[in-house]
Specification:
The chain is mostly beta strands. Helix content is 10%, strand content 53%.
């Protein structure tokens, strides 16, 4: 059930499935990994253990996940389960058993970069701006935290700065609110997800370029280069 389009080094997003369903959890963390090996005979994909804030995330053995795999030929998705976890030399690995056919997404998907970036936002019909922190961004949308709850379905205007090679790109765009939920009652912090609306190709390419360069820098730092 693995696909010939898959290759070592392909990026993978790992999303937890609800028990005995095909649905992912609404606010469950999506982890990022990389394919380290492929075992076609056993329908297995070996990925590196996800790392967050310098800590290894031990995916639960037997738990079910959706794998979103970014290949040169497009985005593929499949259901999978954690078969085992082990360490090879200094690399922590996870064997994912593929439990469904690989399905190619017909719509364009964008890789999400976890980051910390400032953002200014306001309702499209207002001139009062609020501050927030972007926690992940892609060519299709972004997720940010703030002290303000936004209405799902509303449209925001946003301003953000992207720093790349000593250059700053200031981008102003519109986004539709997909979800806005409280994530910390003590500080009354809300997490809001938006999908870009009518973004120019130029601005989208600036975001994609920023993500690509940030990923490259992080890989170099990880390798100690």
């Amino acid at each position: 059930m693995t696909h010939k389009a898959l290759a070592l080094g392909d990026k993978v997003e790992v999303s937890r499935l609800k028990f005995n369903t095909n649905e992912t959890y609404k606010n469950e963390k999506v982890y990022v990994s990389i394919i380290q090996d492929i075992n076609d005979e056993e329908d297995e994909i070996i990925i590196s253990a996800p790392v967050e804030n310098g800590k290894i995330i031990p995916l639960e053995v037997g738990a079910s996940y959706i794998l979103s795999i970014y290949t040169k030929g497009g985005l593929y998705k499949c259901k999978s389960s954690v078969k085992n976890r082990y360490k090879k030399k200094e690399l922590h690995l996870i064997t994912m058993e593929v439990n469904s056919a690989m399905e190619k997404s017909q719509r364009r998907q964008y890789f999400r970069l976890e980051c910390i970036l400032s953002i200014l936002f306001a309702d499209i019909n207002e001139d009062t701006w609020s501050e927030g922190l972007i926690v992940d961004i892609s060519g299709g949308g972004l997720r940010f935290t703030s002290k303000k709850k936004m209405e799902a379905g509303s449209t925001l205007k946003c301003k953000l700065n992207l720093y790349s090679n000593s250059k700053v790109d200031t981008i102003e765009l519109k986004g539709n609110v997909i979800l806005s939920d409280i994530v910390d009652f003590e500080t009354m912090k809300y997490e809001t997800r938006i999908m870009f609306d009518d973004i120019s190709n130029e601005d989208r390419e600036k975001i994609i370029k920023f993500i690509f360069e940030e990923e490259r820098k992080r890989r170099k730092r990880k390798k100690g280069l």
